[in-house]
Write a structure and sequence with these properties.
alpha+beta
């Protein structure tokens, strides 16, 4: 392979790599777990299942703020711009009435 073709191939390969922003703020697994009020094992399970993108740096995983935002948006129950003013309960979208009671209470049938 001549030198110019080699350089072209190298440049194409470089362009295909995903860019990692160095100035982006990264959180540890513990920080994400504390923020979301879940266990560290849950965050690691999301990473292993490739639901949450993370980077393996040295002693552990690091999660970029953009990746965490994308994960949260992907797990939202409805789009963020749909702010109807209240929380939608399961079944309300299908025209059923919601029920909000104390633990152990059941709606009348």
């Amino acid at each position: 392979m001549c030198r110019s073709h080699y350089n072209e191939a190298k440049e194409l390969k470089r362009r295909r790599r995903p860019l990692v922003m160095v100035d982006e703020h990264y959180k540890t697994v513990k920080e994400v777990a504390d923020l979301l009020k879940v266990s560290e094992a849950t965050v690691r399970r999301w990473i292993k299942a490739r639901e949450l993108r993370a980077i393996d740096i040295g002693k552990g995983w690091r999660i970029g703020s953009r990746d965490l935002d994308a994960f949260l948006q992907g797990h939202a129950t409805r789009p963020a711009q749909d702010t109807g003013g209240g929380l939608a309960l399961p079944g309300e979208a299908a025209g059923q009435s919601g029920f909000l009671g104390q633990k152990g209470d059941r709606p009348a049938r």
